[in-house]
Every structure is written in structure tokens, then in C-alpha cells.
Specification:
Four copies of one chain form a homotetramer. The first copy, chain A, has about 180 residues and is an alpha/beta fold. Chain A starts with a strand and ends with a helix. The interface between B and D is medium-sized, with 16 and 16 residues.
Chain lengths: ~180, ~180, ~180, ~180
């Protein structure tokens, strides 16, 4: 199984890109699957504008991301929380992806995680992020996990510095992959 | 009272920009308040990236929009529905606005409306759009209205071609403005 | 495969109980699975009160429902919309079910449908109803369907009197059962 | 101004009833308003059933609560979180209240708070609880507050044993009452 992981954030030091790294380590160390990380920043996906789509088509970055999603059998998406909800960045990416038919996200198993500097771990973003994926037919795993105080919790060694949390994340990733394998 | 109205959509023929027009006509015709429409397209607001903010600051378009919001006493926002939720465009605009302190949206009375080509009138977008505004302290009016089949319903004369719907929108706009005047 | 279907409504002439009937016909006519309908009304599930639970335990009706859910391999739940959200009846039933461990709803594939006398077909209830099921680990199917003007649309012959809608419901039920069979 | 406060929980030792007590102390100590607490448990509100309503009418407990809401100028509602959402108890109470016209909750200013034994303070319940109130036209205050680990945080002296949290709750209650006074 090939998994694609990406973060709903663009900046270089994104906590959610780092969480993708923690997850990738878990997948590799336990030989659970192949896993590839894709950084949205160099894809240069613009703000959606129907007139741009009509005149110059779907941007190359959107097409590249859709291609990678199509080639993967499962997704692990790490999302920040901006203003108590899904970041505009992530929603805008979903909006563009939905314009390429067949929609790459349709029917794809996906796990949602969040990293946040706050105490609540991005829980409001996780729940709001489910809806557009559900609408597009993505097979979201019911369980999710938000990593709070992520600037302190995620280590440079790509682990969580709380043994219980790390064990729980490992358990969740394993459960999810077992589940996803039933669906592909 | 000065009202600012804008749409969460960029394209020239946006149904939601047209709905802003219908609302503006109602406000003017009934001498309810001053009302100004601002088009987000020429503001060129980029996708949020913390590194851009750190290196070059808040984009000029965001600052202009924040200034207009600050100068208004009330807002009327018309939002499309993309993939069953708030459009990335609108959420991205909110995310940028939240970076300019004091936050222009905080404490501001606002009415949410939606126009959609579908039968449900953007109801899922309306409900998801409330959350980030609530988080920022915007005083959202409880009642909302979604205009379905908006490509047929909105006329070039800036009315809704369904007398009952038009009357209901007029009633809602009047109720909202009466309410907003209590809060300023 | 054995499917259990129930409605989040108690009254005898419930539109959602009738929608369970439409779905049961589809399942039977196409030999898709076994299907059993359970009426929540005679189960007499009281409003949740932790003191009742502590003194007299989980009510018999909750235990009977949990037993039926456990014995089924998949669920089809039809929910009304009350005040723009999940009915208290359905949420209260879920709350009681969550007290019996292991939780019968955990890991169970489920399809959510709604019937409503209004034009929007219970869409706000469908989306709010997902969250408690997701929290309990129910494997909700991403696609849902709301039947609007259900008092006119559902016939005494247990069909929808709109051929396109009936065909779409049949397609959805078939797709869901194909999916659920992968998960059991 | 007369404020009514109640909790979406029935059991005697409810953390949310205790949070109503903390809030009542703040209101009284600072002479902000009159405040009355109403316990939902003795009101004996049954699970909503349209057939019961048709045969025996709105239960007396619902009528009593509606009367108290009507007589108050503002509400402070403390809600638990059950299964990541609004408790069935609270939603069922709202559903019954919506059957008595004019709806007592319509236009009424209200503040939502939550107490929870968990770390997240009931944040998912707070956000889900807004929707039915919004639908009924309740004027919900945008800011909310969830008290996590409430079994440890709420003291028998009706305070929060975290000075910063207590100060923040006092500030929120004061801000809310100032706001509500503008609306009545």
C-alpha cells in the first residue's frame, strides 16, 4: 500500500508538516506501507477563481497533487486550525481538487490529524475539515487525533515527547492502515 | 449607519456578488442605511502563508478590506458553497483578516446570506461559515437566508423573481438592520 | 449480511419510519441482504440521567437495541431534523447506547438518511448527526440522502414517487451495502 | 435585568449545575443582575413524541420552563458534552420548547458555557449546541467558555480554583451582560 501525506499549511516550519514527519517515521519503522510526503508550498496553488479556471484551466500544482492522490491508496492529512475551523489553505486546495474529474479524493481512505500550538489540539478544525471530504466521497476514518502544544510536543527526532501520546498515535496509524487495506 | 457588503467569490459573474446587488437595492430603496459593495477580486489576496506574512507583512488588499470593515458599522456577507462548506476563498480572507490587530471583524454585526445554483441554497456553507466569525467575535445575526437556483432567481434588475422570496429577503434585511443599530 | 434499520422518531406515522420501509423494500426486492426494522417507540428509552443509570442500570430498551445493533453487520438510520439539527430523541438514544461497553455502534458500518416535510430534506440534521457516530467509531458511509417534502414523496407502496429519486436511493443503498461488505 | 441559568444535565451532582452556581455567584457578587437557577430534573420532560403532544399536549414541565425563559431577559446555559456533541437531554428540551408558540427562546440573548471532566472542556458540545439555538433565533453571544477537568476545577465555594480562569469567566459574564442589555 502506498500512502500520501500532506499538511494544510505552507510555511517552512509548519507544525503540521512536522506531524507528517512523525507519522511517516511510524509507518516506515513498522513497515506498515510505503509513505510519501508532499509539500503544498511549491505547488503554488492560487486562490480559486472560476474565471482563471475558465481561461487558463486547472493550475499545474493542482494537477500534480491530484495525480499523487490518485496514485496513492490512502491519505494521512495533517491540518492546522485557523480561527476555529479548517484553514483557508486546505479548503482552497480541496476546492481546486474537486474541479478535476474524476475527483481524486472520491472513495480514497483518509486519516485526519491536527497539530496546534494551543491546548485543544485543533479539534474544531478536525471536525470542520471532515465535511468537505465527506461531500466528495473520501472514506474518512472515524477516529482522529489532535496534538496540542505541538511546538513543544513534536521533537526533532520525529516523535512526540509524551510516551503515551506517541503510543496512541502509533496505535491509531496502525488501526487506520489495517482498515484502509480492507477498502482498496 | 454604514453597511459593507461583499461576496466570498472572485469570478466576474458571481451569483453572490449579484446577491450583494439585490441586498444593496433593498437597503437603498428603503433608505435603511448607506451601503457599499467591495469586490474581493481586485484585492488580490494570496493564499495565507506565515512565511510571506513574516517577510513582507500583511498584503495591501487585506489591509484595505480590514479598513473598510472597520469603517462600517455592519456587514452583509454573501457566500457560495463549495463542497458542502465555506469556500476556501472566504475562509482564506477571514484567516488573513484575523492577523491584523485589533481584528476588524470582532464585535461587528453581520448577516450571512448565500446564493447557490443548487436546490439547497448553500445551507451547509452558511452553517460552516458561522464558526470562524463566531470565534473572532463577530456578532452574527441568527437568521440567514440561502437563495437556491440563484442563476434563475436573481434578475438583472437586482431582485429575486419570486415575490415571496423577495419579500422575505426585504423583511430579513430590515430586521437585521434594526438589530444591528442596537449594537453599535 | 444482516442489516438493522431504525428511525430517530417515535410517533406512529413518522416519515422516517416510512423511509426505513422504502429502504427495506429496496433491500428485499434486490436480495441485497437480510433487513430488520426496529421501532424505538416501544423501547421506552427515558431521557438520560446519570442518577438513574447509577441506581437502576441501563434500561431494558437500551439493552435490547444494543443487542440488535451488535447482531447486525450494518445499519441504516433515518433521522428527522428538529430545529436544524439531530433530534433529541436520536441523540438521547446514542447517549444511552454509549454507556454499554463494548459500544455496539463502534466499528459498525452505517448509512444515514433523512426524511423531512421541508424542502431541504433534513440536510442540517444529517450533518450534525454524523459527529456523535464518528466519535463512537461508527463507520459512516460518506454519501447520505435527504428526502424533502417526504409526506408527498413517500408512497403507501413503500417507494418514492419520483423515479429519479427512487433510482438514486436504490443506487445509494446498493453502493453502501457493497462497501459495508468490505468492512465486516 | 433578570437572568435565567440552567444546565443540560439531570443528575444531582452535575458539573454543569455547579457551573451555573459559579456563574450565579459572579452575577450576585458583582450586582450585575438578578439571576435564577432552574433545575431541569424535577421538570420531568419526557422524550419528544409527536403522538404524546397530539394526545395530551405540551408537558407541564416544558410549559414551566418556557414561562421562566419568557420572563427572563437573558440566559446562561451550561452544557455537558456527550459523545462529542450536544447532550440528548438538552436537545430534547430545546425540541419541546420549540413547540410552544411564540417560541420563548426566539430573540433571547444567551451565553453558552460548558463543564466537562475531560481536557477539552466540552468544546465540541458548545459548537454543536449553537445551531438549534441559532435556528430558533436565540441571540447567542459569540464568545463561549469550556471548563475542562471540571470535577477538580469547580470548588465547593462556587469558584474555579484557577485564578486566571476565574478572572476570565468573570470578564466573560460581565461582557455578556453588558451586551445583552443593549438587546433588551
Amino acid at each position: 500500500m502506498k500512502i500520501l501525506t500532506f499538511a494544510g499549511s505552507l510555511r517552512k516550519d509548519s507544525l503540521n508538516k512536522k506531524l507528517c514527519g512523525v507519522v511517516s517515521e511510524i509507518v516506515k519503522k513498522n513497515n506498515l506501507a510505503e509513505i510519501e510526503f508532499v509539500d503544498l508550498q511549491p505547488l503554488n496553488i492560487p486562490v480559486y477563481d472560476g474565471d482563471i479556471e475558465a481561461s487558463t484551466g486547472i493550475p499545474a500544482g493542482v494537477q500534480q497533487l491530484a495525480q499523487k492522490i490518485t496514485e496513492a491508496q490512502a491519505l494521512i492529512i495533517c491540518t492546522p486550525e485557523y480561527n476555529g475551523s479548517i484553514p483557508g489553505i486546505l479548503k482552497n486546495t480541496i476546492d481546486w481538487l474537486s474541479r478535476l474529474k474524476p475527483v481524486s479524493l472520491a472513495g480514497k481512505p483518509a486519516l485526519l490529524l491536527a497539530a496546534s500550538p494551543g491546548a485543544l489540539g485543533g479539534v474544531r478544525s478536525l471536525w470542520h475539515s471532515r465535511q468537505p471530504f465527506d461531500v466528495l466521497g473520501t472514506q474518512l476514518y472515524p477516529e482522529m487525533m489532535g496534538v496540542g502544544k505541538a511546538h513543544e510536543t513534536i521533537t526533532p527526532e520525529k516523535t512526540l515527547n509524551d510516551a503515551k501520546l506517541q503510543a496512541n498515535l502509533e496505535r491509531l496509524v496502525k488501526d487506520y492502515i489495517t482498515h484502509a487495506k480492507k477498502l482498496v
